[in-house]
Request: fold
Amino acid sequence: MNTAVQDAVKQLYDIDVEVVLTRPEPQFGEYSTNIALQLAGRLQRNPREVASEIAERLKQSEAFAQAEVAGPGFINLRVSDQALYALADATARPLNEGVNYVIEYSCPNAFKELHTGHLYQTIFGDILARMIERSGATVHRTSFGGDVGLHVAKCLWGMVAEFGGIDAARLDAVESTPFERAAWISTMYVKGAAAYENDSDAKAEIDQLNVTIYGFHATNDRDSALAKLYWTTRQWSFDYFDAFYDLVKVDHMRYYPESATAPTGMGVVKEQLAKGRLKESDGAVVFEGDESKHLHTRVFVTSKGLPTYETKDIGVIWQEKADYNFDKRILITGNDQFEYMRVVFAAAETFRPELANTMTHLPHGTVRFGDGSKMSSRLGNVARAADVIDSVREKVRELVKDESQVESVTLGAIKYVFAKYRIGGDISFDIEETVSLNGNSGPYLQYAHARARSIMRKSTVEAADDVTLDESERSLLRKLSEYSEMTERATRELMTHHICNYLYELAQTFNRFYEKSHIVGDEREAVRLGLVRRYAATLADGLSLLGIEAPEQL
RNA sequence: GCACCCGUAGCUCAGUGGAUAGAGCACUGGUCUUCGGAACCAGGUGUCGUACGUUCGAAUCGUACCGGGUGUACCA
Reply:
């Protein structure tokens, strides 16, 4: 359709322009263009005159039923009902046909529990992956976290202290579900962390333990007593991740543990040091920042010879590239890592120029609760992901009687609230609002779908299309016709909140239609049933993009 | 100090060059003898943080400032 306008401009003025059609307020029609305002300057003419010339030309085009000049020189375009049906039935263009993506998110550390930040990333990342897959791409979901390091040493120390010695057999007495095991490991961490702070002997032991743990990987020690304790509980962590991802019903990611990425990263560091792209400085290996680009200098290997997060991050990029040969890589992290990631990306692109323009970093804000507080692990009021889910489920139980639907509504509520904020800023998580049955929430849309399906079950006629729609019928079809454009935009911009805003507006439009238009038993039943059917299908499709179930009844 | 992000209605947020700046929540009143009322309609007194600038046109772009947050060499 924009090409129809481009052609008109070309014929009239012999100018090649890129025409962007926008969706104006409904009273102005389906599409609007400001092309005349842009051309007026170049042509040294009055914008309204230019607009009416273009509009005259467009009236002859088959693409539009109507073309009118409005305001300072906008051209408002209206399409036929028939064209509106075609738009409503159109599927989004496959923007990423054949493109190979890696999307890295969630990224929990082994030996720790997932908190709300992980929950947000897990859900947002999963939705993003769905959207991109839907646009024709191949998507590989990955995750990256620490299975070695000081936090692990604190944990192991805590276990040894708890057992009064190194005794892996004592693990048999620990509760056996993945969530209980993860919680137990957390208490061992707390024990170790406290000792590290307050007891200098313990601190020395833990620091030594840290080195020992790296050794388990280097020497592939799986049999010594301490190694058994480590490998067993490490596996417990991975089992817990799997159980958690099953609980929230997302696809699993491939986990890249730091123990594996560190050696890869160290190999790269060695190579790049020889090439002079990394420098030695005060005994450490650093990537020198570029002040003109405001890039910090960062340490890749410490003066003690240990790899930092930078090196491990380079290691993951190299491994993901080797495993999947991605065309595009998207990384989701908290926004506190924004500047840090700029340096890592700059280093990666310096080492391997072919990576330039293939990697995107999506930083997100903090999940904040109703009172505006940021839950802090230091203060002991950290919100574990599982606790958040539990408290939402409790609220849902008050409203949904059918126990078999509680889980679907619980997850719908949580996924929706995380998807509806534009990524980048903080996420305000108000539990009442999240579970609320009216307003812009997941449960509201699930209900909206169930209601539409109920109407469809009730009707016995054959659905039919009609090209002389009344006003409320047409406004619903018009809203439906925006769906594929909206999903394209959400995919292009990597922003899930467009989907939520649209679905909510769609439901509101439907409610207005439904208020005015009787369906079952009406003489226009067939036509209206066709619209209800499209509405239910669009709602279900949009919810499925968000990973939310669309129930038949609720 | 420098850099980045944020500042829009009482609250939570959309809108990032276009028409009278919009939603939800909350609050008030009303509609309909419910095809699932979890509905619909009506009601906003907003210095779009402030000031200058660019533009036919600025919440949106530029510059400076104010306020909040984050980052800034051996943590992740």
